[in-house]
From TrEMBL:
Keywords on record: Methyltransferase, Transferase
PROSITE patterns attached to this UniProt entry: N6_MTASE (PS00092)
Biological classification of the source: Bacteria, Bacillati, Actinomycetota, Actinomycetes, Micrococcales
E.C. no: 2.1.1.171
One Pfam match: Cons_hypoth95
Taxonomy, superkingdom: Bacteria
PANTHER family, sorted: METHYLTRANSFERASE
Protein name: 16S rRNA (Guanine966-N2)-methyltransferase
InterPro entries named among the record's database cross-references: DNA_methylase_N6_adenine_CS, RNA_MeTrfase_RsmD, SAM-dependent_MTases_sf
GO MF assignments: 16S rRNA (guanine(966)-N(2))-methyltransferase activity; nucleic acid binding
């Protein structure tokens, strides 16, 4: 069972697609959001959740006070789960669900659109490193100054290849899950 850990929807369960997703464990989400809240990266934030699956990460952010959350996934079952979960949690007014491939969404999104304060990437573990690097290159175009970018992958995965405009500032391992953090390079 997948639940929201804390906030206005804390303890509420989420619908998870029956296949094709790997929801972030409650333990990892709790630790991740503890760190993000310590960094003051959630409350009032514009959040982008890529490879959203059930929407657990983005909806956790909304439950904890994010102003606006965009959930992006290409799988029909995942998109439907995201919509159902946002509605059931009463978070649909602050949640936008986009049915599209992550790479296509990032390329099509205009550079002048509102920048994101927090970007969460939880791609399938079998996503090639080059594809993740391409995603991160595009993500860098859409982040606000001081934003936090989080990548979650298998602990056996190589470190993400960050674009020159994002600088890593830490990582954490939780069993088989590894989480990396980066931020935009400050303007000189």
């Amino acid at each position: 069972m997948t639940r929201i850990v804390a906030g206005t929807a804390g303890g509420r369960t989420l619908v998870v697609p029956s296949s094709g997703t790997r929801p972030t464990s409650e333990r990892v989400r709790e630790a991740l959001f503890s760190r993000l809240e310590h960094l003051d990266a959630v409350d009032g934030a514009r959040v982008l959740d890529l490879y959203a699956g059930s929407g657990a990460l983005g909806l956790e952010a909304a439950s904890r006070g994010a102003d606006h959350v965009v959930l992006v996934d290409q799988a029909r079952a995942a998109v439907e789960a995201c919509r159902r979960n946002a509605r059931a949690l009463g978070l649909q007014a602050r949640t936008e669900v986009v049915a599209d491939r992550v790479d296509r969404y990032l390329v099509r999104r205009p550079d002048g659109a509102d920048a994101f304060d927090l970007v969460l990437l939880d791609p399938p573990y079998d996503l090639p490193d080059d594809a993740l690097a391409d995603d991160l290159e595009q993500v860098a175009r859409h982040v606000a100054p001081g934003a936090v970018v989080v990548v979650e992958r298998s602990a056996r995965s190589a470190d993400p290849r960050w674009p020159a405009t994002l600088v890593p500032f830490g990582d954490r391992r939780y069993g088989e899950t590894q989480v990396w953090f980066a931020e935009p390079v400050p303007d000189a």
